[in-house]
Amino acid sequence: MSNKVQSVLGDLDLTAEQAADVIALAIDMKKTPEKYGDALKGKSVATIYEKPSLRTRVSFDVGVHKMGGHAVYLDQQNGAMGKREDVADFGANLSCWCDAIVARVMDHNTLVQLQQAASVPVVNSLCNLYHPCQALADYMSLHELFGELKGLTLAYIGDGNNVTHSLMLTGAQLGVNLVAICPEGYTVDAEIVSQAQKIAAQNGATITVTSDLNAIEKVDAIYADTWVSMGDDKTLEDIIDVFQPYQVTSELMAKLGAQYFMHCQPAHRDEEVTADVLDSSQSIIMRQAENRMWAQNALLHTLIVK
Hints:
Elements (H helix, E strand, L loop, with lengths): L15 H16 L12 E6 L5 H12 L3 E5 L12 H11 L2 E5 L3 H10 L4 E5 L5 H15 L6 E5 L4 H13 L2 E5 L8 H13 L4 E4 L10 E4 L11 H8 L6 H7 L3 E4 L11 H4 L6 H20 L2
Parallel strand pairs: 1-2, 1-3, 3-4, 5-6, 5-8, 6-7, 8-9
């Protein structure tokens, strides 16, 4: 939380009740967008990108426009934060003109510096530790399909990363059982796991981390992510032997009884997931992609609209 206004730099900057409310609002926005057509009328949102983006950029730009606001796109051609100009000065200056700052950054500390200098809400649209907007969209998608979240079991299979962290933390708040199955040496942050497990215990859920695919028996959905993330110095050839056993196949979907396949995209057919799964009727990746916009709109509405 900001000491001035509420920001969302990580998943736990939202309480469990707030996370549930954002998802409920997002579902309502999707059903009745006309109710929110002027919600951000006269408001501007600065969107900063240290990393390239398809879904994040378009979903924020179009989403803000759908609520009557204006999104200002800032990439590194405008001068890299911390080089041409201090990160804090970015935050302070943007606060003079904009009603919120959305930032997709390399390092979480950049968000902290922005938030400390800003007098408007700062939203993490991706960093090395968390991806809260993705998690909100993902759990919104599951809520639409199952009608509730508490008690569901989601298996994340693959490289432990920022998406895994956010799925754990937000899932723990919402009462979702999360199983992270990651190859040895590619697991999730131990401190974040500990945080998530404590929260899950309070909400009647569990967080399990293992490298053994046989450690789970039944899940409601399986989630995968690319084996080589943007900015990684390793190549597919470097890690293929380690990750190949963790490929999501139709056989694995059937074995675990998974109704749905999830992926934050970009996805790579026949790498982390086989094409027959990715392109099947069980795949909800485009629902997730669309819901990025609705979840983000609900989050911005929560933080900006008084």
